[in-house]
Amino acid sequence: MKILSKPEYLEQLDSTRDQRIAWWREARFGMFVHIGLYSSLGRNEWAMAFENWPIEEYEKLADRFTVKEGSANAWAALAKESGMKYMVLTTRHHDGFSLWDSKANLYNSVNYGPKRDIVKEYVDACRTHGLGIGFYSSLMDWHHPDGGRAAYDSAARKRFQDYLYAINEELLTNYGKIDILWYDVPCPMEHHEGWNSLEMNQRLRAIQPHIIINDRCHLPEDFGTPEGHLTAEAKRDWEACMTFNGISWGYVDSAKAIPYSYNAQRIIKMLSTVSADGGNLLLNIGPAPDGSVPEEAIEPLKTVGQWLAKNGDATYGKLERVKYRFCNGVCSTSKKGHNLYVWNWIWPNDGEIILGGFTSRVKSVHYLDGGKPIAFEQRDWRIFLKNLATPDSIAGVAVIVVEFEKEIEHTPFPITPSLNNGQEFKEPTYG
Predict the structure, then answer these.
(1) Strand order through the sheet with 398-404
(2) Which segments of 149-214 are extended strands (E)?
(3) Which residues contact 253 (CB under 8 A, 6 or more apart)?
(4) pTM beyond 0.90
(5) CA-to-CA distance for 366 and 359, rounded, in angstroms?
(6) Crossing angle for the helix pair 6-27 and 197-207, nearest 10 degrees?
């Protein structure tokens, strides 16, 4: 095949991205699954590097890796019940151990440990539960003899580039249609040429033309991946990847992780942020050594799923980036067409919420869950939502839908010239 230059390749991606990524933009919420040899240690997926394990000593963990059958189905079932639309699995983390029947990497889960193809089980589970399929693939490899040497030895670099292509070719050839290729950690290379990313990705895309690829190979590809924070990328698609406890992506003791772990409200709050900013949330679980889902994740995720079943319209679908952040100090918003979804975190004691700065006329207001109308009054640039009672809602979070008659117009801080570019406020003319 002809390999395009970088400008030609990026132009081609730009011309096909909207079609390829449309499903992902509407999905909004996915499950990350970190599992590997490090799971049996229970103290972070980087243990091999952090604790300076010799390769020959770390390799002994391979036969302790005993993921029970049915684990992948349990992950996918929980993802589905939690309202997630896709999954990403660590097919091979930085320690170099592959979770499939790899011919390019014999250090794998078919030759050691469970003696099974975990990737196949995962793919089958995703398809059973109707979830998009993502493969995490580390670029860094602490086990391969050329993994570090490639940075300064050209022959080693070529061997390692060939190895990386071979293992990813297997992943994208052996399991049918795959939706996401999720690279991680482009060390020790500092440029895409070090990984031969330009050629590798074009050859991989020829196998899976509809695939989307993240940006961790020193090329922008299809979407950005802020890690550990929900920071929007203004001019591109983005996905925040978050641990469940802020400590480890891999398994740590469930009972001890509970104080650090997310509850349902915190997860819903993260969903509100990505929904407003045009992003996705990829929320991680680190299964136990036997593959079981960590106990501290189950109840919060199921609660979020119940909440999304009733309020998902504020998160899923063709949402637009929100410009109306500063309309109420205890509310967040998301937007779809003429509908503004108001996520209220602290319900008022006096039964009234005021939304400020809107100059478009309101058509109607109602609860998203159940559709019950809400009394409102619109005066000047303010919308008064009246007679509100603390909602009897899942996780205590209810969403109010404010439907406008036309495109929403908003001016933040309308009566504060110093914050409004020095402009005096003028009474709106609704229309």
Answers:
(1) 331-336, 339-344, 398-404, 362-367
(2) 180-184, 212-213
(3) 42
(4) yes
(5) 19
(6) 50
